[in-house]
Amino acid sequence: MNLPRLVSFLLALALAPLAQAFGPVGHEIVAEIAARELTPAARAEVERLLGDRASNAMRQWANWPDELREWPSYGGSSPLHYLNFPRGVCRYLPQRDCRNGKCVVGAIERFVTLLDRGRPQQERADALKWLIHLVGDVHMPLHAGWGEDRGGNDFQIQFQGRGGNLHWLWDTGLLKTRDLRAVPYAEALLAEPRPPSDFAWRRGAAREWAEQSCAIVSSGIYPNDPRIDRAYVARHRPVVERRLLEAGLRLAALLNAELAP
C-alpha cells in the first residue's frame, strides 16, 4: 500500500464513528443469544412485531440503528450509542453524562417505555430493533469510556500487520481471532459456564451495565505498547466474549419481562 493510501486508511479508522460497538458480527451474536433465551410469550411477540422467526429477525435488525443518522425526538442519533464518563469516574450521573437523555443509557430507558402494548405497533417494533442493538452497545466497554479519546477511536494500535485503533480492536479485531460466524460463535458462548453476573432485568439496570463497561476500561485495557501481541489477545478476548454473553442474556431478560402479556 503506497503512503497516501496508508494515511487515508489510518485516518478512516481513527475517525470511525462510535456507533460501531462490537461490529456487525458482535451485534448478531448478542441477538442470537437473546433469541435462544426468550420465553414462549416473548418469542411470539418478537415474531409478531418483526415478522419472522425470532433468531432470524433479531440478527437481521441487530445492526440497523448503525445505519441511521437521525431519529424522531432525538435529532442526530449518534450519541444514543454511547456515553462518556470523566476519566476514572465510573458512577453514572444523568445530568452530567446523559443530558436530555441523549446517551446509550437514556436511549435504552426511553425505548423500553415504547415497548408498552398501548403504543402503535410500528413504534413498538422500532423500539425493539433499537433495544436489540443498544443493549449490545452498552456492554462494549469502550462505549462507556473516556470522551477525550472518543472511546479509544483516537488511540492508535498495530494488530496483525495493520494499523487501527483501540475501539476497532475491541469491537471487531479481537472477535475476528476466533474466525467464527455469528451463530456458531453464539453457540460456543452459550456452551460455556455462565459468569457470576446479575442477568435480571429491572428499571435502572442499564446504568449498571454502563458502569460495568467503564470499570473494564479502567482496569487496564489501554496497552503500553501499541503493538498488540498474543498475550493481549489471550488476556482480553475472554472479557469481550463475557460481555457478549452478558449482553445477550440481559437482552433476553429485558424482553421476557417487557413483552410479557
Quick structural summary:
The chain contains eleven helices and four strands; from the N terminus they run ααααββαααββαααα.
SS-based structural class? mainly alpha
The count of domains is: 1
The CATH superfamily label reads P1 Nuclease
How many DSSP-defined strands?
4
Structure write-up:
By secondary structure, this protein is mainly α. The chain has a single domain, classed as P1 Nuclease, CATH 1.10.575. It is 54% helix and 5% strand. The chain has eleven helices and four strands, in the order ααααββαααββαααα. The protein has helices at 3-14, 23-36, 40-50, 54-61, 94-97, 104-113, 121-139, 166-176, 182-190, 205-218, 230-258, and strands at 70-71, 75-76, 156-159, 162-165. A hairpin with a 2-residue loop joins β3 (156-159) and β4 (162-165). α2 (23-36) packs across α8, α2 crosses α9 (182-190) and α6 (104-113) packs antiparallel against α7. The longest helix is centred in the last third of the chain and has 29 residues, at 230-258.
SSE order and pairing:
Blueprint: H1 3-14, H2 23-36, H3 40-50, H4 54-61, E1 70-71, E2 75-76, H5 94-97, H6 104-113, H7 121-139, E3 156-159, E4 162-165, H8 166-176, H9 182-190, H10 205-218, H11 230-258
Antiparallel strand pairs: 1-2, 3-4
Notable traits:
mainly alpha, 261 residues, 11 helices, P1 Nuclease, 4 strands, two-stranded antiparallel sheet
